[in-house]
Amino acid sequence: MEFSRLDPSYGEYERLSAMCPEDMYNVVSPDRLTGIVPDSLLNKVNGVVLMNSASADVTVFVANMNRVDMPASAVDQEPYIAVFDHNQSSASGGVVHHGNWPERTTYPDQKFFDAIAASGIQARYPLATVPTAGSGLLRDLEGHPQASAFWAAFSALGRSR
Hints:
The protein is of the alpha+beta class.
C-alpha cells in the first residue's frame, strides 16, 4: 500500500461538511472534489462514496473513489482522507494507492466498460462495491468494502506522520 500526502486547506472543511453530514455517507459525483483531489486522478474516477466521522475536536472525511482501470478491465478503490483538527485549525490528508483490503479491486462485466466507452468516465453504472442507497448512516457500512477503505486510509495517514 502506498500513501501520497495531499493536505487540504482547513477551509475545505465547510465544503466537505455541506456534501456529507456527520456520521453519514453520501455517494457523490467526482467533480464535487475538484480543487481538493487532483484532476489527473478525478478524470479516471466513476463515482465517490464520501464518509464523515467526527468527534468534538476532529472530523475525518474519506472520499473513496472508484478509479476505472480500462487496460485491466477493473475498478480500483482509491480513498482520499482529510482530517480536520478543530483545536489547531489545521488539516492533513492524502490518497491511498494499491490498497489491500477485500474487494478493493473489482472486475465489472463488459457492459460496464461498454457504457464507459460510449458515454465517458462519468456514466452512471451500478457497482457492487457502492452502496445501493445514495446516502445513509456511516454505521450501515460496517462489514462493507467502504468501511475497509475508510480504516485503510485512516491507518495510512497515521503512518505518514
